[in-house]
Amino acid sequence: METRKEKKDNYGSIINLIISYIKEEILKSDIRTEIIKPILVYLLYYIIPFVILFVFLNFFATIVAVFLVLHFRK
């Protein structure tokens, strides 16, 4: 029968094993290419339509402003 100290040591060694495994996997992976780059790509898919919309609105507003200036100039 195990004592409390032995159970605690076994539990601590299991935790240390899990932490060391996670640490090794994080150090092996290239965080920039595996995590950050996909996030940026998906972020671009959401930003691009708003940029296109802003460009079209700006173009439309410029055309309207030119016609208003020409109309009131007469």
What is the element layout, followed by pairings?
Elements: H1 4-28, H2 31-73
* Overall form: rod-shaped
% residues in beta strands: under 5%
Round the mean pLDDT to the nearest integer and report it. 83
What's the assembly state of these chains? single chain
Q: Specify the biggest β-sheet.
A: none
Count the E strands: 0
- Helical proportion, percent range: over 70%
Order of helices and strands: HH
The SS-based structural class is mainly alpha
List the uncertain runs: none
* Count of structural domains: 1
Number of helices: 2
User: How far apart, in Å, are the first and last alpha carbons?
Assistant: 103 Å
Task: Report Rg.
Answer: 30 Å
List keywords for this structure.
74 residues, mainly alpha
Written description of the protein model:
The chain has one domain (4-73). The model has no long low-confidence stretch (mean pLDDT 83). With 74 residues, the protein is mostly helical. It is rod-shaped, with a radius of gyration of 30 Å. It contains 2 helices and no strands.
Q: Summed up, what is this model?
A:
The protein is built from two helices and no strands.
